[in-house]
Amino acid sequence: MISCLIPGSFDPPTKGHLDVVERCAGIFDRVVVAVVSNPSKAPLFTDDERKDLLLECVGQWDNVEVDSFSGLLVDFAAKKSVDVIVKGLRAMTDFDYEIQMSQMNRHLSGIVTMFVATKPELGYLSSSLVKQVGALGGNIDALVPGPVAAALKERFNR
What we know:
Radius of gyration: 15 Å
Number of helices: 6
Largest sheet: 5 strands, parallel
Number of domains: 1
Distance between the termini: 45 Å
CATH superfamily: HUPs
Number of strands: 5
Order of helices and strands: EHEHEHEHEHH
Strand order of the largest sheet: 3-2-1-4-5
Strand content: 15-25%
Helix content: 40-55%
CATH architecture: 3-Layer(aba) Sandwich
């Protein structure tokens, strides 16, 4: 049984995130999607809210579970007994950052990181951009799954 870990802030989860989850669900026996708790950031949604949103979005895949963590990614990966870390990439700027992280994680624990390029039609999509568009009253329905759109509209009182 081969398992992977897809970490991220998921603030909020986007269709780009779910694209990566869907492809991993078709490749790996077990997929752990993990909300990273980063005390240096001020997320729009709490860790528990992001977990709940993800749970609503990944229900169609029986081999996907959702969790959250703080601390070192490699420690959480070991705790969850995953074989591979998977990171989605939108552009070369993502790669520049993620390659350093993957090399550090490999140095610390030996775990391998795989990169999955998002579909070209989702390459522009980021959680930050979705929040900006939503906060300004723009239409976000095509950018995020239904439960996430509803939560964003409620959060922005629209």
